[in-house]
Amino acid sequence: MQVNAVRNPDGIFVNTQCFREEAMHFMKHKYYCPDPFGSPGWKDYWDEQLKRCREGYSTGGARITGHHYHYLNFSPIQVAVQISKKVAKKKNTMPHFWDGDYNYFWTLDIARYGILDVGITTQEQNDEVYSLPTEEQAKELKRIYNSLGLEVRVQPDYLTGGYHVIVGKARRKGYSYKNGAICANIYNTVPDSLTIIGAFDKKYLYPEGTMGMASDYLNFLNTNTGWTKSREFVDKQDMKRASYKEVNEGVASEAGYMSTIMAVTFKDNPDAARGKDAEYVLLEEAGAFPNLEDSYLATAPGLSAGKFITGQIIIFGTGGDMEGGTADFAHMFYNPAEYGLFPMQNIWDEDSENTNCGFFHPMYWNREGYYDTETGVSFKDLAIEDEKKERERLLKISSNGSLIIQKRVQEHPFCPAEAFLTVSTNHFPVVELRNRLNLVNRENLNVIKGQPVTLYKDESGKVRAKPDLKGELTPVWNYKPKTENLAGCVVIYEYPVEGTPKGLYKIGYDPYRQDKGSSLSSIYVKKGVHKYSTSKDVIVAEYVGRPENADMVNQIFEYLIELYNTEGMHENEVTHVKSYFMRRKKLHLLAAQPDRVIKANIQESKVARVYGCHMNEKMKDAGEKYINTWLLREQDVDENGRVLTTIDYINSPGLLEELILYNRKGNFDRVMALMQVLFQEEEEDLAKEYGNSENTGNAKDLQEFFQKLHRRN
After folding, report:
1. How many Cα atoms occupy the beta-carbon half-sphere of 46 within 13 Å?
2. Confidence (pTM)
3. Most CB contacts within 10 A, which of 140, 307, 419, 579?
4. For 34-49, how does the pLDDT look when each residue is reduced to its tens digit (9 = 90+)?
5. pLDDT digits (tens, 9 = 90+) for 65-80
6. 229 within some domain
7. What is the CATH number of the domain that holds 661?
8. 657 lies in which domain range?
């Protein structure tokens, strides 16, 4: 039978029902194969269907993967069926073909197997090593990839396979069904295979999670197909194995297909799947997976042999379900290659060209009511317009609009930056910060604008900065360092103005704790307003690192204070800072405790440490408020009339990452250092407010008053 083309000349899907003919037959007749059970025709039919579920299916000039074919034809789901203008009801049916699913299933297949058998060379010692494809091979890879008509984009270097996959998505995209179907398909087509469905907590696994879905699909296959598999030995809620009892000479043993699906929880145990040689590992609800990175790194070696992967790990999470695991999930999603995850071009976020991320399923792919149910083509523009109207409606009717709209944006995101909003713990402008980070990474602004330097004192005792012209210094640019050299170096974005006036610059220092191995020291220098400068209120220098000796950082702090002619505020719970400056007889370089800030935020505070600032929950509340105000402060207007805020002038990728991922439970050294800067600034502003009314009753205030009066005279 001649099958019409699946796509028109413009590459648009026009005939996708040919991929789900078995499903349509089953929905109409309540059975798949009309031939009698066990007959040659019956056997041929089920052999052909099994082949399609393993290898994929081509028709009408197009092809889908095996997992996609299995999902469309042998995986019933609940879908919403419209019964009136604003009312729908759930109906048990077979999945529609979706263009979003087409992209997803092909991404999994290409990530694991690649498109061509290229990119691997053999050395004389017969060691397999990866190499980039040749120019000719790259062209062929690109040609084949383009022929698939995917909306996602991947560089040819990554089309040779051998990757795991990380997925971010909007709500209500059916991924529990899709992933449950993949688990059932592996169970049914790969003998002796192990499939692991993992989550931080078992509530994400069963009875309603993917393990529950997979179990339902196994029951469906046993009831309605020619692939019945007994589960005589293991048929539990958290584990299923295809086997039966076989008796030889009176001795019973376990035999059969021996494929297994098991659910594993990683709570308090990132090693739960360590060493397990699985065909497929699904890590669910990544945003609620606090030890996601540790769990992934412990699991991945069991699915590899040398340079090859023997199984595939899929990490996925839903916007709106982001909790304590958001930091790991977001970092791995935006830095896939360093974890062996499939790097895709970020076609979703603003200013993200030439940057990579994981696979993302936005809200406008296959939004209910906004796609063609016959072809699966998404009406993206209409879906986006509808979502924008809904957001506007919520803003108008909600008394707590900001939180409501943020939650809505997370659950129905246009882009990854929206999905990774951390509503419950982070009130910073995450989308704007993410867009700036994308721009910094794309344009290498940290490298272009930042100059690594070595600070030293000349013969006169004046601090100087020696630029690193040979590329010998290694700045710690990222939240999770990509270098083993954590000594770091000072980076200057703007040198101090000539004849630097006292107080123009503010410096904040978060020292590392010697008993906490993951902690880094962070120092930030912020410039205030100077009438002869074009820049204002921006970060002009930074240091992030962890050298072997803490006093090495204290010296950098000292030198930066002198270079920028100011005093330095530090987090004073760590006592080695004050001890260093006492030994150096330079306590005058340390900023005094911000009494006015403390008084404004902590009632009846009795803290008296003289120098620096002690951090507690109240002070973190204040620091977060000050940071948010600073980030959104209007700085200028560009040539298009767009208001530029402080965010548009931050060139430090590590600081941007930490601001995006920040929460009270994590270790965010850069954010803590920035808080010290802003405490110092706020203390100065409060002194100006109180200058005319509170110069009595406080010796320090009175002294400052007379000093200012003397300077004026």
Report:
1. 20
2. 0.80
3. 419
4. 999 999 999 999 999 9
5. 999 999 999 999 987 6
6. no
7. 3.30.420.240
8. 442-712
